[in-house]
Amino acid sequence: MAETVKTTLELPADLVQEMKLKAVQEHRRIKDVAAEALRKGLVPAQRSEPDRIRHRVKLPLIRGGHPAAPGEELTPERIAQILEDEDVERFLRASGVSP
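Above: the chain sequence. Below: its structure as C-alpha cells.
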C-alpha cells in the first residue's frame, strides 16, 4: 500500500456532499472516493488523433417507397452536378441574366 499523507483541504460544501453520497452508495470511504477523483483529474488529457473515431453515431436508415428512376440515382457525381447547376443558376440570377 502506498504511503499516505494527511492533509486539509477547503472544498465547496456541495462537492463534499456529493463525495459522501458516492462513498455511501459504493460502500467506500470518502478518502478513497476523493483520491480516485483527484487521480482522474491529474491524468494529462490525451490528444485526439484526427483519424481516430471518438464516437460512432448510428444514423437511421430510411427506406424509400420505390427505387430511383434510371439516371436519377443520387451518386456522388450526380450530387456534384446538381450543386454545380444550382451555383450557376444563383450566379445568373444575381447578375440579372435569365437562365
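DSSP finds three helices and no strands in the chain.
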